[in-house]
Design a protein that fits this description.
Layout (H helix, E strand, L loop, with lengths): L9 E6 L2 E6 L5 E3 L3 H5 L3 H4 L4 H8 L15 E4 L7 E4 L6 E3 L3 H6 L3 H13 L1
The structure holds zinc ion (2 copies).
One zinc ion binds next to loops.
């Protein structure tokens, strides 16, 4: 499968909570249906891309699903954080997040607040 934004290959990132595909070039993330829910707690370790690059690719709107042939992905907005746009496939329900978006999204949760705090303490 190829990245729907920049047409590069994905690498598989294995985590104790499930696997995720990450683009080798733009570091965008691909999640199969509902996988993103399980992986929010470790978003810092998965979403390692540069948010500035992610922002650039976020402007690329009309993309097709990398899994389903000829399925156009829909732009979705997170209800709690409306500045975050991500793409969702209406057929397989996979989701694509640009670099930085998944981390941003997950920072809304309490567990991530604690995690950020502990990272600061270590410096
Ligand atoms: Zn890419
Ligand atoms: Zn799909």
């Amino acid at each position: 499968m190829k990245c729907p934004k920049c047409n590069s290959n994905f690498e598989q990132v294995n985590t104790p909570f499930g696997d995720v595909e990450r683009c080798l070039n733009c570091k965008g993330l691909w999640f199969d249906m509902l996988e993103d829910e399980d992986l929010k707690d470790i978003a810092d370790g998965i979403d390692v891309g540069d948010p500035e690059i992610g922002k650039k690719y976020n402007e690329t709107g009309d993309i097709n699903c990398p899994v389903c042939p000829n399925s156009k992905m829909l732009k979705m907005v997170d209800a709690k954080q409306p500045h975050i746009w991500f793409e969702s496939c209406p057929t397989c329900f996979g989701r694509f997040f640009d670099a930085g978006e998944f981390k941003d999204l997950s920072e809304n949760t309490i567990s991530d607040f604690i995690k950020r705090f502990s990272i600061k303490e270590r410096k």
